[in-house]
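Priority: medium. Attachment 1 of 2:
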């Protein structure tokens, strides 16, 4: 399994506005990151991993990293 470093990934709302303070966890691990004021985050994860994205006021989502 190969690790991927996702750098400067951006999370936005449905209007394209950046979302600050979002927690991004690698499912099944203790690896996590939080988005900054510009909605950006960086995280190290296996290329087959799933990211769990959660924030107050938003529905929690699970997103596979895949070939990103």
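Attachment 2 of 2:
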């Amino acid at each position: 399994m190969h690790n991927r470093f996702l750098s400067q990934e951006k999370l936005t709302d449905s209007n394209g506005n950046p979302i600050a303070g979002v927690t991004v966890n690698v499912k099944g691990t203790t690896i996590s990151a939080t988005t900054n004021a510009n909605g950006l985050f960086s995280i190290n994860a296996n290329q087959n991993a799933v990211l769990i994205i959660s924030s107050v006021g938003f529905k929690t989502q699970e997103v596979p990293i895949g070939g990103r």
